[in-house]
Fold these 2 entries.
Entry 1:
Amino acid sequence: MSSVKDSTRQVIALRLSGRLFGIPVQDIKEVNSDVCIVPVPHAPAEIRGYMNIRGQILLVVDIRGRYGLQEQPIDSKTRLIVFKNTVDEPFGILADQVDDILTLPPSESDSEVYPLADELMILIEARSILSGYEHTIQ
Amino acid sequence: MHDLSLLDEFLAESRDHLEQVERDFMAMQDSPQQADPERINRIFRAVHTVKGSSGFFGLIRIGALAHAMESLLDHVRSGTLAMDRARLDALLAGVDALNALLADVHNSNSMDTQELERQLQKLASVGSKDHTQASTQPAPLSIQDGKIALTPEIKSAVPAGHHLFQLSYNLQEMETSRSIGAVSLIEYLQKMGTVLDGILENVDTGLYYHLLFATVLEREFLLGSIHAEDSAIVELQLKEQTEKTVCKENAPIASSKTEAFLKVRVDVLDRLMSLAGELVLVRNQQLMLADDFEGSARSTLQQLDVVTNELQESIMRTRMQPIGSVFSRFHRVAREIGQKMGKEIQVLISGADVELDKNILEALIDPLTHMVRNSCDHGIEAPADRKALGKTPAGTIRLEAFHEGGQIHILVADDGRGIASAAVRRKALEKGLRSEDEMQAMSEQEVLNLVFLPGFSTAQKVTDMSGRGVGMDVVKTTIEKNGGVVELQSKEGEGSTFRLRLPLTMAIIPSMIVESNGQRLAIPQISLEELVGIYDQDIFDQIESADDKEVYRLRNSLLPLVELNAVLNHPEPFSESFRRELTEKHRQERTAAKLRYTNQIANGITEKISSCIAVVKVGKFRYGLRVDRILGTEEIVVKAMHRSLKGLPLFTGATVLGDGDIALILDVAGIARHAGLRLELPALNHQSPEIESNLTEESLLIFRNGGSEQFALTMQSMRRIERIAMSSIQRIGNQEFYPIAGQLLHIVRIDRILDVQQAPDSEEMFLLLPNKSTELYGILCHQIADVQSFRYQLDTHTLIAPGVRGVTQIDNHLTILLDADELSKQPPKASAHVQR
């Protein structure tokens, strides 16, 4: 499918500590509110814990740290972006706010940053979020 | 890398197949042309199996060669080619080459067999070119007057009961007016059926894409759901083909047999299994809400309960595999070792059809192999020695599997020389595994089980058979990791028996839910020995600090203590200095608490203080895990940790509890290691020797009912313990009921059956739900005192009453052991008693 549709890309725009991020729509399963996390002791700092979504246990990751952003407390506005199971084992990332779905014109480069009219959007490659974690735990 | 034992199995199987193939070819040497079709079929199947399994191990040369042989055989089988001398010779050369490839399987991929493959291909193509092509790649579709010409290959690819349609799409029109591309179209169609093939046709009106689509759906259902016009859906007739197949099948029994089995992908089963698990959770959540439901909703819920249970059981069954598939390989193992060592060994198998969860079965292969090798190697004597002992020259190894008490029992028994406990003692002493004093206190049985300690081996000499550095300790850990237990029984001169007990499945495990650090955690019941509550003064008397560790004095033994909070809060493995600090901190805290407590007592305040310890076991090693609270037992569905958290040693998985909260499942061995306990030295465990004879050891639930009497029920007979509010008890006449899971549970008060003190009024009580009772029924009690494993001697004479098994002394308390089964038959009497 991707080979046919890759010409234009649809991304969900979300904000983390004020910063704008984009995630390709095709990687996303759902966006959840009511974020309620059970911490996993000894997990790397970015892994906030587990959350139960309709009986499925989901890993919750906060990617702020890798962009040097300040950690925020979880409140009623916090959203969890849940990725499709084809991306990785069940997991999702936290977002302070989910804005809109944007259609980006085709791009020649694989650049991680996409310039919008008034600000830069960081594109997140869902498959790489959890890569390398197994090695950080002994 | 692939599991070597699997590869071994593949090699062994393939050699077996090729042996048979060679014999079959030899049998047709004299007149190849008149070869028996059944024989050709058998050869074909054998070669096909070799080809299929080779792909699994990535053995491409073996696969390619077997494929070339298979293609040729296929033609002979279907009658399009006759068997002749040249083909037979080439096939035999193929068998030889396969044997050579198997002999050096690790280098087989770099060997060159292409000349032989080409020769086989050539022989397969003489006089029947079309078929050769068909066997390697499907013939391209041809289209006539806008209609796809059906070939037998296409027809045979249509699954039984499916309709075959030709769907014609104008690609340009699709892209422009509906913005559907070819790829997404096919993806969409695949959801409703199977796209078998497709062909592009460029005509004046546009670029057409004709698809062959097989589906169970009728034509009218397709209309409007697949983006195609009425005229663009043409059903293609398959009928004549099906009739032909029916005619060909002259063995209806065989065909019905093949329908009874179906190969299913393991990941699909795993998914089903986890979905069923999730359904169980939803069901549990519903059951928790059941109290709020009205009548009809309640009966629906009961139905959901029943269906969920059955669904789960059925899905679990699909993962069950007969143990015979593992047992059968040991004929060969025994034969090979026997040949090498000049022994005669026969393997007797019983219970081959006992089924085990696939995961458990796979985990069992290595330990079983080790035990069988061990028996062959060390157990069974040489024929001459056996004769001298008056035994049959051939030694026997019995492999048995059977169900008992909700567990699977597996025996590996030999009639060899057995294991002398004196030799074990000597060895353990020699290797410094146990001291003379320690062993003095041990029973024969306990001494025998020392062979499971790491670093133990009774072999006089190391052979290449079992002395491979994998000791019995590995066997034991593997079995225990899978929730099982292994024991060794042996009599010198008569043989040894390994007895394994395993759970039926690992997906759902009973667990104790505890709370620490503000979160709930599950301890699998299998690693839990007992729960201990220490109160008031005992906290200061029975917990002691010794250098860098804390110990708890439990009866006659000293138990190392680990504080779960400290473990959860300290991500680095405990260093010696950290342990020292922690111990000192706890000591000071205890001193302060003791001071406070003594002051309060002095001031007449009697505030209760308590501490909860879960006594857990890692093999024979026990330690105490201090938790904040103990919340009760729950059957949990185990979910593996997320890929990125697999390295955490503290947890084996996670689960969703009945109320939807997530609990992490503790790995007590991992916790012990993290906390720096040395598992291999249970030196702190000075258990006094006990007389085994007429003592029973059982896990008991000890409870009181307000009065001075203490009661006990075996944990085995209990399903669960429910904390209930007395206000929700409902009464009909003299009978009392408690609503639970949408049903009314008959409440039995012990004081209405037995002549014991009456329970005091209390807002909260406990309801003990027996395991097997056919009637819905719970025993009311006032206070749960303890759950632990006891050795006790039952006195059946002092108190004879319905539902009473006898009385016994437990921790200096006279305790009435009740029979839950018996009690569950008492309710009518219970009400009669009230009337009295």
Entry 2:
Amino acid sequence: MMRRIALTGGAVAAAIVTIGGCAGTDVTEQRLEGAVGPEFSNLYLLQQRARNGNDRAERPDRWADCKRGTKSSPDRGAADDWTCVVRWPSPGGVTRPLTYEVHVLPTGCFTAQGPATQVGQQLMTDIDGVSRTNPLYEFDGCFDVS
Amino acid sequence: MSDVTHDSPAEAAGAVRTAARPRGGARTVYLWELEKLTAQWRIRAVLVLCLVAPFLFALGLRAQDTLPSDTLFGRWAHDSGFAVPLVVLGFAGQWALPLLVCLVAGDIFSSEDHHGTWKTILTRSRTRGQIFAGKTLAAVTYSAVVVLLLGAGSLAAGVLVIGHQPLVGLSGQEIGAGRAAGIVVESWLYMLLPCLAFTALGVFFSLATRHSAAGIGAPAVLGLLLQLVSLVDGLGPVRRLLPTTAFDAWHGLTTDPAFHRPLVTGAYVSAGCAVVFLAAGHLLMLRRDFTKG
């Protein structure tokens, strides 16, 4: 009885992997860029508002360019070697490229970690002197994989 | 009927009871099962825990500096009270909800095996179909109560302990308190659907294995395994058809623009899963030879 259950389970698992393997991944460069770019833009405004107490900050465009780390692999698939470049209006008034390291899950959710030297540490002090979460240090997002 | 007279109060009460309880209804089984459930200390403890645990979690969050940042919205748990019910939701969807739901669904039929009481209840002039319907409805009611209590508890805990600050959504957009509360309520209400699917799984395993430990454990372990399967990349079409995927469908409500396709697919999958496993369970119930114990 147990043997039969194990065999059936193995066969079902093999079938799932075969069918699924043919279908390919749902995580694409385009989908990731469409999520990271706008999210960074929104979070930048949030950070500036908390820091300066006003909405006068310039909104970065919603552009992002995402690539897989290894040169040989195609720019698709869930992995932790994605990097996304966004346009960051630096304090000096010049827009600089900023590279986020992005870990993407097959479910379409990702975690992006930015360079702390530029975007600040995990906690920041807002205009009232209160310690709060720095929106740009690390952020989560999800996109539709269906 | 005010003109009907009775000789004694006891007889009158008896007459009223007979009139109010139609013979052979699944409703009687249902009400009796609910009474049995609410009499168990284990069930009472779970229900109280669903309300209290989120408060302990929120108080724990406030007392320390570290954040549950490996869960969605965990980063914002100190900044907005509305993040708390979503952290609990993300966490509960992994394994806690299937297990909580199957605590009753996986036990409700096999407990009769455990106590050797099938012959007793089957001679109470209720058909097998009625017993199945009544017991299943009781399990579904419990599942719904657990989900709603846990959702209400974590929303209340978040707002009362952390506060009703605006929430930062998964697209970095700021969501006002009113809309954030709406998203939390919608997300938790949606959980009723995958939990219904897991209730059906519990009912099926309870009938198939005739053993409560298997009835409770099997769906919970299966839920965990399916979560692992959905973490394999390249299984897109398969992942969409898994009953566990619906536990993540709420993500789409928190982005801007929102995406609803996973919610729709998840609803169909949950309903389909519930129908299939309830039908299979019903068949097992009708076909079983109870004379052999």
